[in-house]
Amino acid sequence: MQNISTDQIFTFFCIFATTLPKSSTLNKLNYTMDITIKTLITFGFIMTSLSCRAATLTGRITCDGIGVAGVAVSDGHDVVYSDEHGDYSIIGDKSTGCVFYSLPSGYEPDVTDGFNPRFWAALSRNDDDEQHDFVLHRATDDGTRHAMIIAADTHLARRNNDLNRFTYGFVPRLKREVRSLHESYETVHSTILGDLTWDNFWRSNEFDLHDFMDFMAQCHYPCTLWAVIGNHDNDPSVPAGATTDDDAAAPWRDIVCPTYYSYNIGQVHYVVLDDIFYLNEALEGEQYTSDVAGSRNFVACLTERQYQWLENDLSAIDTGRPIVVSVHIPVWRLDERLSVRARLSDASRLCNMLSRFKQVHIVSGHTHINAVMHPGDYPNITEHNIAAVCASWWWTGRYTGHDVCIDGSPAGYELLTVNGDEMHWRYHSIERDVDDAQFRIYDMNTVREFYRNNATMRAIMERYPDRMDYSNQADNRVMVNVFGYDSRTWRVNIYEGDTRLWWTRETVEDPLHTLCYEVPRFADVGYYTEMFATSRNNHTFVAEASTATAPITVRVTDGEGNTYIKCINRPLDYSVNMDALQPPLAPGDVNRDGNVNVGDVNVLLNTIINPQAQRPPLPLCDINDDGVINVADVNMILNFMLRPVPTGL
User: Fold this and answer.
1) How far is CA 413 from CA 148, 272, 386, 516, 568, in A?
2) DSSP 8-state secondary structure symbol assigned to residue 182
3) Which residue of 39, 201, 210, 542 is 20 to 30 Å from 512, comparing CA positions?
4) pLDDT score recorded for residue 36
5) Which conformational region is residue 501 in: left (phi greater than 0), alpha (psi within -120 to 50 degrees), or beta?
6) Tens-digit pLDDT profile for residues 34-71
7) How far apart are CA 196 and CA 420, in angstroms?
8) In angstroms, how far is the first alpha carbon of the chain from the final one?
9) DSSP character for 54?
10) Cα–Cα distance, 644 to 649 (Å, whole number)
11) From CA 232, how far away is CA 357, in angstroms rounded?
């Protein structure tokens, strides 16, 4: 009998489903399998197990030449544990192409080129037995306190000046971040959540996965990288067929790492999954080449093989430990009514498997936007969909020098810091001017005038009438885009002078991205690519002020109690450089001179003694946000001056 994998059978039914009429059950499933398909796949797995010749994988895991016991080792199916000598043995069919171990807490992996963890080995494509040994290094601490830099979608392809912007933008920012983190954390690692490359340009631009790994070494990427496969990291030259998913991911498994695996740092168990089932179907009427053999389409789901492995992997993990699941395609999405909907076809199946754990965080990329989602049926699960390093596929940087994502978020990454089972999240921009800015303020009066009077913008609206047209905005509106907003824990306050304004959370287009992509692109060639265009985001807050000139102050407080403040004077210029015009203010910088010092104390004391004296707006003076200006605010500034890293500010 010919060897057929479970996932090959799954491929057959996915392709078969796409050929059925639109009204068929299979084609409506959004690629969710019904019970018949599940039964057939289970049968196929049993037949595969009976027909494949078993091979034995053995090896030893050591640290300083001494075997390490209890390390989980897997061939992508089964999970075994090294014995007291560090030896392991797995009998399997080698169909996943890799053997790998799960990094145990308290250790570091062997790393090449300063970033590439060697926790895995590629297997030969024959039935021979193989031996693969692995080396661990004792960590300087147990990892209870550690940091994880979580980035997504680098899309390096040797185009749009991407290699230069990556080398002189993203990498230096990461190096500064790692140096800063090492002041408080011994253990600092990173991940990129897929689409490291851009499949369409692997051969035409001579930049494939080999080139990516070489380029990362040349850039001196500053910390260990746990990589996630994205849809654009599959080989597009593999035509549609029964083995497309496995074959298209073979370069990733040979060059980068397994497509799914796990590792442990401190108390956190990290799981990496491949939620792209690659089809690469040829569409009728389209012409393809040997380099790109199909439409590069895929199904957003996990395979049966992964579910089997995941069940084995999680079986030994205590339910009280935090779990972080890294995927490329988001498991959930927010609709325009801010309701959480499944994006992965098998989202419920995955989350049911994770439901027994106390705290689960899913991190995802793919969309080039920021979104935080709490699926209602799974109160233990939060998903962080993280915006892109490449922003809008490097287009905004090419045109304006500013990398802005399609939701208006600056290009950046999420920083996760961990202390035991406490996890703190903060989005960081790559650009120096806004590296810790959490939001941007728009004076919609000036945006409105641009939409009304700029010839390019009017031509855009005429050609793309479904866009949001800000030329008809009401007077004196203010918009605030809060990039990492979490509806469960964050607070947003908008003030006009001393008056707190009512706001509504709206699903809107971000004006800065329009200015950085659509406007220059349309002026350049007379059109823009709609995939790269401004998307509607759900983390923008809209308020109506009573005047066109009073200053606006915005205070945003995140889930950890950190407060971020900006204060703008109006009219505020609407320009590609507007982030530099509204730098964040440190809590306590009452006089807005860039420092928190005795000058701010004097302003507060004068305000308390003489309330009628001219002073900054209330939201700047009211440091603790209790609605009054008193000695408690003075004390908070003094505490800040004595202890530069404030708690609860």
Assistant:
1) 10, 18, 7, 20, 26
2) T
3) 201
4) 36
5) beta
6) 333 333 334 334 333 444 468 999 999 999 999 999 99
7) 30
8) 67
9) P
10) 11
11) 31
